[in-house]
Amino acid sequence: MVSKMQLTPYAKRNLLRAVILALIAVMTNQLHAQTTALKYPKPEKCEQVDEYFGTKIADPYRWMEIEKTPELQQWIDEENALTKSVLEQIPFRDQLRKEMTERYDYAKQGVPWKRGERYFFSKNSGLQNQSVLYYKEGLEGEERLLFDPNTLSDDGTVALSDMEVSKDGRYAAFATSTSGSDWRDIFVMEIATKKRLDDEIHWAKFTNIAWYRDGFFYSRYDAPPKGQELTAKNEYQKIYYHKIGDPQEKDLLVFEDRENASRNCVAAVDDDETWLFVYQNESTYGQKVLFAKLSDPSELDNVKFTTLYPSFDSETSVVTTQGDQFYLITDYQASNRRLVICNADNPTAENWKDVIPEQETLLQAVYAVGDKLLAKYLRDAADVCVFYDMQGAKLSDMKLPGLGVVGVSGKKGENDLFYSFTSFVYPSTIYRLKLDANESSLYWRPDAGFNSDNYVTERLWYVSKDGTKAPIFITYKKGMKKDGSNTTILYGYGGFNINMTPGFKPTRIPFLDRGGVYAVAILRGGGEYGEDWHQAGTKLNKQNVFDDFISAAEFLIKEGYASKETLAINGGSNGGLLVGAALTQRPDLFAAAVPQVGVLDMLRYHKFTIGWAWATDYGTSEESEEMFKYLLDYSPLHNVKQGVKYPATMVMTSDHDDRVVPAHSMKFGATLQELADPSSPIIIRIESKAGHGAGKPTAKIVEEAVDMFSFILYYASKK
Q1: CB 567 within 8 A of CB 490
Q2: Which positions ≥6 away from 2 have C-beta within 8 Å?
Q3: Which residue in the list 131, 161, 314, 573 is annotated as catalytic?
């Protein structure tokens, strides 16, 4: 006779968990069987062939570059339907959505900043699509609603992209974007009455709002041809001055450059409203700087500019002014940047004098606060802050909670400085610092619903193909075994002098809780180690960036964080190019890939909207045969090979992306579906009423994260 074993509650839970996992495994195997036989839409192909220096290049999906055609919309609908059918069958997707929504649903607050006697700040109660603007009359005053961007649209797709308050605190100018587009509309509100005025500005783009007396400077283009609002090339940007109460047609043209179509220009005004600065650029790096002494607003159309820095071979910008003296942060003759001072009467570079000389660590930014200078350095991709006096003598270090990123809000003549601190598992927390005592106190801390102490972030070093060493941040939950079984996401960017630093996203926490590893590789092409580091990943050096990324992936596998069966790669924009190049160059190395809003057609990127400005990083297919061949050699669209088994890939883009137009992703995705070995799924996710990323409503952010992490957790795991 066999007696029945009594199960303890603990054993019952384990048995139930085993049954659930077994059921998920069965469903997973069923899904695998379905995805290996995906039936992709069959888009039409055209006979388009282009010739570059005697080499003919076919472009059969050229028609996808044309906006809003019925044929394109039908294909988009078919692709989205296929993507939805694949994602909906992932067994844990609904549970992951629940977890990510819960993690995102906590109160968030921005760093307060002062204008006049008022303090302004943003807040989000948790799942509001757009953060709401508030102000206080004095720091201890009552919290008052200023403007709620959620009232601009029912679905949160009209976003507030900028808000600037006049020096006297009377007016606020708001810039909005629709469906994620880079185009901006600007309107004005009287703060005391909350009355929205009749002022309306249209066709502004890549602009500041720079207040001067009862008006502001802004940058705009001429209206694009009808039907080409999201693709037409942007040329001949101009700066105007708008006086409150006037219609836009009466705005004064302050600055234009009729000799150079491909130059952008933005205006800035110093805190004392004495000087107007114009920054001209013709790419994403380097700027010419001009200045003028401000006069009566009615005479601004005749303002005379003096050149402060004449060329585009360095980055120079004004930090603050003292009378006729300008403090400048520059990488002119200083790859890691330095702070200099010059006089308006003798502004040329040979007359600049060092205030904070170049150091071994990158000088990211300098702020004039109280009667001091606060220098923010980037040391191995994490922030370090140091106080100096106005002559450049070091005063003290600013103590930070750990390895992370700082955001600063302070003003000349004020004793209070506010700063935020965040890291991979440390939600943005705000501190108040008394400058006279150099003492910080907690001002506001979020309750994000998890314990940061349960996770680990390591900063390690990998070695690239040519021997270059670079840091990599690796975050995971404590207790994880480094046995190669963990689903791992490697993220990178590597371009345009942009720094990759520790930052928090609540949607990553459920991924880490499921045993996931999140890694961010520092790559050449970024700005983490100064301009030399940036240049080492541009033009004919661009392959260095891909080599760095691939080496970082191999490091993760070698050290046991991941294996080829569990490693996924992700990146957006220039990072989407990175992922596209990595998966076409080393398809054997990755289990899954998610390129987002990527630059994927390297022969034609410069022909759309602002793409021409990226030429200093990429070069163009038209400038020389050498550059054309180099671009062709790594362009993801042109390196998809017949019959190759590529990683499971979800190409992500948005229909209103007018920075990296969605044709990049659509052509690349269609080519992968046509040519790749069918055993790995290739799906294309095309978000509607969204752009390159800025201003995206919370609902879309969460759903996008659910789809990306579900896809990666499913396809980059040991089944």
Answers
A1: yes
A2: none
A3: 573
pLDDT in tens, 562-593: 999 999 999 999 999 999 999 999 999 999 99
Averaged pLDDT for residues 614-641: 97
517 strand-pairing partners: 488
Question: pLDDT band at residue 4, thresholds of 50, 70 and 90?
Answer: very low
Q: Go through the chain and tell me how many residues it has.
A: 719
Are the beta carbons of 50 and 601 closer than 8 angstroms? no
Strands 316-322 and 682-687: unpaired
Q: Tell me if 557 sits within 8 A of 563, measured CB to CB.
A: yes
- In this predicted structure, what is the pLDDT of residue 36? 54
Give 659 or 36, the one with higher predicted confidence: 659
Separation between Cα atoms, residue 324 and residue 147, nearest integer Å:
37
Residue 140, burial from CB neighbour count under 10 angstroms (0-12, 13-18, 19+): exposed
Question: In a 3-state reduction of DSSP, which class is residue 226?
Answer: coil
Helix then strand then coil, in percent of the chain rounded to 5, is 25, 35, 40
* 623 — pLDDT class (breaks 50, 70, 90): very high
φ/ψ of 298, rounded to 5, equals -70, -15
Beta strands in 578-647 (DSSP E): 592-596
Let me know if 656 is a catalytic residue: no
Beta-bridge partner residues of 530: none
Active-site position among 428, 534, 692, 717: 692
**Mean pLDDT of all residues belonging to the chain:** 92
Strand 215-220 relative to strand 210-212: parallel, antiparallel, unpaired? Answer: antiparallel
Taking the C-alpha atoms of residue 175 and residue 576, their distance in angstroms, rounded to an integer, is 28
Backbone angles phi, psi at 663, to 5 degrees: -60, -30
Enter the tokens of residue 529.
Answer: 């180690």
Inter-residue contact 310 to 295 (CB < 8 Å) = no
The pLDDT value recorded for residue 719 is 59
Which residue type does 678 have? P
- The token duo for 208 is 């500041």
pTM comes to 0.87
3 state DSSP class of 136: strand
Q: Is 317 a catalytic residue?
A: no
